[in-house]
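Quiz preparation item.
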């Protein structure tokens, strides 16, 4: 008889989904500018990715190999696009450069190539890290600049740091935690904190 294979991983992924959509709604509910819109899109896509990941982890015995593969690809491609919109939000709120659209095109093309690679070449998690980490470092640098020059951006800086801690947990504690609460589950719980910090930062991310 088929069963839910990783209930705690599924539950924590679905919690990420719920809070991602909640924070998206809260950002958009009371008016927003371009930077906040990009943050909202990033959080919404994060929710989509978390839902795909939770379903893949929990219902693997109910899904065909192809269906599970599609859910996994959706999940990791979502990470790429969420990172892209987070980076663009940081660009438009931190830089007054009139050629910001050049950065938009560069990051978009990079994200599309990443998505193609995941979808049709290799979908190993190492490629997610290789794409995700540089963009998050760019977000970190831009938000530090914003924090120093405008006194804004601390929550997002902390959110990036927490996200790096969450990623380290997922990589370094793999196979070293009990099955009922494994490295993925702890990663999701820590990432919830990062998600909240991103939401708080997004509330103060209007273009100055």
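Solution:
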């Amino acid at each position: 008889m088929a069963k839910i294979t990783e209930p705690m991983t599924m539950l924590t992924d679905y919690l990420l989904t719920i809070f991602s959509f909640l924070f998206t709604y809260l950002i958009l509910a009371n008016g927003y500018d371009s930077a906040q819109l990009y943050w909202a899109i990033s959080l919404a896509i994060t929710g989509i990715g978390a839902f795909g990941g939770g379903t893949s982890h929990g219902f693997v015995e109910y899904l065909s190999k192809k269906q599970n593969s599609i859910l996994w690809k959706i999940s990791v491609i979502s990470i790429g696009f969420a990172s892209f919109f987070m980076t663009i939000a940081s660009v438009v709120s931190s830089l007054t450069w009139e050629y910001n659209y050049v950065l938009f095109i560069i990051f978009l093309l990079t994200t599309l190539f990443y998505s193609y690679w995941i979808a049709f070449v290799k979908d190993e998690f190492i490629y997610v890290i290789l794409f995700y980490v540089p963009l998050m470092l760019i977000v970190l640098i831009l938000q530090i600049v914003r924090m120093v020059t405008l006194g804004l951006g601390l929550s997002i800086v902390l959110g990036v740091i927490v996200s790096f801690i969450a990623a380290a947990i997922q990589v370094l504690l793999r196979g070293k935690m009990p099955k009922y609460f494994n490295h993925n589950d702890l990663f999701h719980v820590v990432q919830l904190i990062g998600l909240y910090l991103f939401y708080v930062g997004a509330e103060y991310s209007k273009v100055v």
